[in-house]
Amino acid sequence: MIVTLRVLRGDRTGGVARLELPRMVLGRRADSDLIFGPNDAKCSGQHCELAWRDGRLWLTDLGSTNGTLVAGNRVTTTPLKSGDVVELGRGGPTVSVEWGVADADATQAVSIVEPEVPAEGRTAIFRAMANEVKQTRSRLRVALIAASAVVVLAAVVVGFVVRRSGQQAEAAGAKADAALSGQDAARRIAEGSSNAVFMLIAVSSAGDEGFCTAFAVAPAMLATNAHCVRAMEAYEREGRAIVARMNRHPEKTLRIVGSKVHPLYTGDPRSPDVALLRLDGALRTWAPLADQNAVSALAAGQRVFTLGFPGQVMNEAMPAADLREAVISRLTDFSNTPGSAATAQLVWHTALTSKGTSGSPLFDELGQVVAVNNGGLSAKTLMVENPVTGKLETQVTYEATGLNFGVRVDLLADLLRGG
User: Fold this and answer.
1) How many C-alpha atoms does 70 have within 13 Å on its Cβ side?
2) Nearest to 207, CA basis, from 317, 310, 313
3) Which tens digit of pLDDT belongs to each residue from 152-171?
């Protein structure tokens, strides 16, 4: 269904966009679907999104600096009704959101009307021009069918040339879009979810030890692997406190005060190896989770990204997460068979997996978490001497060529629904 967005206040006042997309991002960055101006300072680069779910249009804040408001109230995620006005930061630009508009052209994906087009808005304009070319060719074909035989013959020659040129232009555009999409996705994740990723650290007088990654999914909640919770419990039996330290912000260090492991986790990595951690403080940014439709549609060859802390280069004093691009290699159920869209919840991938990256989020190109990174079948347990205590300790090592996998995020949603 086409959604009409009318800018009521801000740099783009008077601008209109008609979008027919399952997900629409609003922000100041050039890869947004509705792009705001450089003077819309209250608006973040990727501020909020509109997405159709179960026949309703949902508004979700994407961890913006100044928040998203509807009817003056700040919201995190909420369903909209046609005619609602969304404010991007209190005092920032406002947009009316409508659908079912009678004059909307059902074949039009994007149409933005503005008196001037700044550099960052050109991408949306070019897309609108491309749509107009497609519509023009469609109308020409209808006219040619009704024309006389002589006109048809001439038009076929012209039509062939136009279609061929159009196809070549579309192919070139698609190739360029594919090349840029990976870069855009990586930037979106690095910028939008950087503050949602945390290093899990065991604290003691002998020194801090990072051991897993976790990511924010609610104001006081992190997600990670169940086996990371088991490791946490072992550290606590040794008298160590467990904290979560934000990526690149060591001053944001919070204590873990509770945990919840998926009830079907058996200790086998190929089981629902997901868990939730409760913090003693609130968070402002968390990673968006993909919905059921998105995870059910995952397929081999799909591009994904991980953001976590490889154990070999962990810096507990100043965590710096490692962003890696990969592809999904296959999907299986927990019995290692293809399963169905409902049961293929093991996501095998080519991303980096090492001690420390367990529990890291696996993002799709839209920046949504589709799986929780788990481990690899190449993992080996070794006994090594601790240089500080002189005691033998177990250490897990991984081979780069291992078969790496994560657990689909809908299993995490099960825990969130259960409280």
Assistant:
1) 18
2) 317
3) 444 444 454 445 555 555 55
